[in-house]
Amino acid sequence: MRKALVTPSILSADFSKMREEFQTIKASGADWVHVDVMDGHFVPNLTFGPPVIKMFRPHSDMIFDVHLMIEEPERWIDAYKDAGADRLTFHIEACKHSHRYLAAIREKGMASGITLNPQTSPTEVEYVLEECDQVLVMTVNPGFGGQKFIEPVLEKIKILRKMIDNKGLKTQIQVDGGVNSENAQRIFEAGADILVMGSAFFKSSDKKALVEKIHNLNG
Ligand code: DX5
Ligand code: ZN
What we know:
- This protein is an alpha/beta fold.
- It has helices at 18-28, 50-56, 77-83, 98-107, 154-166, 184-190, 199-203, 207-215, and strands at residues 5-8, 32-38, 63-69, 87-91, 111-116, 134-138, 172-176, 194-197.
- 32% of the residues lie in helices and 20% in strands.
- It is globular, with a radius of gyration of 16 Å.
């Protein structure tokens, strides 16, 4: 039976008290920590890069699932490994040779991921799926937390699920953007394995119950 994983996005955390925020994530029973990197070019917002992630690293023993929303991600693979990333995902729209970069990420000992903006067809990743530990399906336009889930993208999750299963691969499907306790069941049923939650997680008054609810989804 499939089980959904939860990875809270620290984009919605309080950056003035990250040590506590990492403890809160751990105590909730969530699976990984989702770390959003934005460069102000690929997306119209700016967050942080490798030096800050390196500072976060000693404050959490959880898996750092790093989502790069940056141009030329291939230039930074070593830097994110060095900063402590366990999983590294980049946007297919930001590069020319995704197959090569996915392999480079795995060679560095990280799990490899590729991301699709809402507009991007699932067929774009069809021939590189074997190199992907995860495909991240964006269900909002990347750049900001707290946006509304884009419903038609649910269909893309279903198509990707079939594609991965038909090829007999273990690639996981991650869904990021506007995920909450109301739409989680539908997203999971469509074929998602990992749910990223930013605002829904940090706004929740009972984070443990929220995570438990996601872990208990079935369908
Ligand atoms: C958006 C980021 C997301 C963001 C999700 O560009 O990639 O990870 O934090 O936030 P919510 O869950 O609030 O949509
Ligand atoms: Zn993200």
